[in-house]
Design brief:
The structure is a single chain. The N and C termini lie far apart (146 Å). The strands form 3 sheets. Strands 3-6-7 form a 3-stranded antiparallel β-sheet. A 3-stranded mixed β-sheet has the order 4-8-5, with no helix packed on it. Strands 1-2 form a two-stranded antiparallel ribbon. It is 56% helix and 17% strand. It is α+β, with helices and mostly antiparallel strands and 224 residues long. The protein is elongated and about 165 Å long. Helix 4 packs antiparallel against helix 5. It contains 5 helices and 8 strands, in the order H-E-E-H-H-H-H-E-E-E-E-E-E. One of its GO terms (molecular function) is protein-folding chaperone binding.
Length: 224
Amino acid sequence: MAARSLWAVQRLQRLLASGAVSESRGWLQPFSTATQRTAGEDCSSEDPPDVLGPSLAERALRLKAVKLEKEVQDLTLRYQRAVADCENIRRRTQRCVEDAKIFGIQSFCKDLVEVADILEKTAECFSEGAKPEDHKLTLEKVFQGLSLLEAKLKSVFAKHGLEKMTPIGDKYDPHEHELICHMPAGVGVQPGTVALVRQDGYKLHGRTIRLAQVEVAVESQRRL
């Protein structure tokens, strides 16, 4: 008897768990299919499916990704072109600098060739076949050649911005003068000024390229 009662209780629990019957006011009533449909509709109405939202968002993201990819490709192409242009400019500039180093003094050398021609013609005056009575004429030709050579050199120097400094009487400047020694200041010579030039100095377009070797006047009689 006890075994049958236990079996009945277990069966009732299984029915309640499966929803076949419901407990109301102490009575076990069957759970109708209409109630199941109502419960199902209520559940479906509470959680409506969201199908359009994710689809539109995903489509917008894909379009944006395609647009960004095109922009990246365009920027990459522009960057590669800019790098190539910079490299070409660098090579062209380097070539111009090398050419300037090699041919920068072309004009100056061309003018010096004319000076060399004068020297060559002057040297021809001292040929071995010259007679003793022609020495006077030879010296005159040499003098004329040297005078022409000096004038031509001055013209070439002026043309290319090369200027010889004449610092006598100027105040001593270590950026332009190289002090050789001191000498007593004579009449009309101010102390601290250049009294004598041992070797001429030169400037190229205003920049000193060789210092002038000078002696500077001082008040004392001491020579250094």
